[in-house]
């Protein structure tokens, strides 16, 4: 087990009694409150020093309420060191007031507007969306890229048009570990890593494998490839709690990632599990 405190760059918190989360209707095991005290218990022996809250796809009309609620939680859970809310970036210039209002909260470090659920694989290339993403640089905000392999080619074209924005790829872009299909994911991830403003979250891999029967050996090729692409300076540990619990207890994912990078140096290990999250999200 990790012998130093870690920074978790991807934590979800929600309360369905407070806000509406349509996607939880199909996931009864997750359709209940998941709050800081629940997270603390789930971490077990893993010592989390800081965490970054990432938006949870509540009803889009409630995105400001979600950010405000988490900011209120942070007043009694100081480990919440950053917030990555949703914002209507597809509105382009019309989203400026919304982004400015979010950025006024010092805990807000970036924005996530999920791309992977869009049936149009070129959604992220729409002129207004590109303009909205570019705008983030004006406010010092990063952008979380939540994509599936089908969206990677268009995402590369988005990143190319936004050189001033810092991007981080959530969940290693969700390789198809369950079926063992790694192309074109592998080639596209390599291309994304060639942009110096793109980083990668080491998270979400267990839920892309067989939830009941995955092994750490099945995850290792994807972990190895991500680190080969981005190096230890641009990979960031993340837990993806509580979504991770669909396939794993929280400590098992930490142990799996730590095992997969077992040959790294102490300084590289600390970059992955601590330093890089601080640097990317300016915690």
Give the structure's gist in a few sentences.
The chain has 283 residues and is α/β, with parallel strands linked by helices. It contains nine helices and eight strands.
Straight-line N-to-C gap:
24 Å
Give the CA-based shape: globular
For the biggest sheet, the summary is: 5 strands, parallel
| Oligomer state of the chains in this structure | single chain
Strand residues, percent: 5-15%
The CATH superfamily is known as: Metal-dependent hydrolases
| Mean pLDDT across every amino acid position | 97
Write up what this structure looks like.
The protein has 283 residues and is α/β, with parallel strands linked by helices. The protein has a single domain (6-281), classed as Metal-dependent hydrolases (TIM Barrel). It contains 9 helices and 8 strands. The chain has helices at 36-43, 63-74, 96-103, 127-135, 152-160, 185-193, 216-230, 250-260, 266-281, and strands at 6-11, 48-54, 80-84, 110-112, 142-145, 167-169, 198-202, 235-237. α1 links the parallel β1 and β2. The protein is globular, with a radius of gyration of 18 Å.
């Amino acid at each position: 087990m990790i012998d130093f405190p870690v920074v978790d760059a991807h934590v979800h918190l929600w309360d369905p009694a407070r806000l509406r989360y349509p996607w939880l209707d199909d996931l009864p095991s997750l359709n209940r409150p998941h709050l800081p005290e629940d997270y603390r218990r789930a971490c077990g022996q893993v010592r989390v020093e800081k965490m970054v809250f990432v938006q949870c796809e509540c009803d889009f009309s409630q995105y400001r309420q979600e950010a405000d609620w988490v900011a209120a939680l942070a007043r009694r859970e100081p480990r919440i060191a950053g917030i990555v809310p949703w914002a209507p970036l597809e509105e382009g210039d019309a989203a400026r007031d919304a982004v400015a209002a979010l950025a006024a909260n010092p805990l807000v470090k970036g924005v996530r507007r999920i791309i992977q659920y869009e049936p149009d694989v070129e959604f992220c290339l729409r002129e207004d969306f590109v303009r909205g993403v570019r705008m983030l640089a004006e406010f010092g905000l990063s952008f979380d890229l939540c994509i599936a392999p089908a969206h990677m080619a268009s995402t590369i074209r988005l990143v190319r048009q936004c050189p001033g924005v810092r991007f981080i790829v959530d969940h290693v872009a969700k390789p198809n570990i369950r079926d063992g299909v790694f192309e074109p994911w592998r080639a596209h991830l390599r291309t994304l890593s060639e942009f110096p403003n793109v980083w990668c979250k080491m998270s979400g891999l267990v839920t892309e494998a067989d939830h009941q029967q995955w092994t750490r050996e099945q995850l290792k090729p994807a972990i190895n490839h991500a680190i080969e692409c981005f190096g230890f300076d641009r990979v960031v540990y993340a837990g993806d709690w509580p979504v991770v619990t669909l396939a794993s207890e929280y400590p098992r994912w930490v142990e799996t990632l730590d095992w997969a990078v077992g040959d790294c140096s102490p300084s590289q290990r600390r970059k992955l599990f601590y330093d890089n999250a601080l640097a990317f999200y300016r915690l």
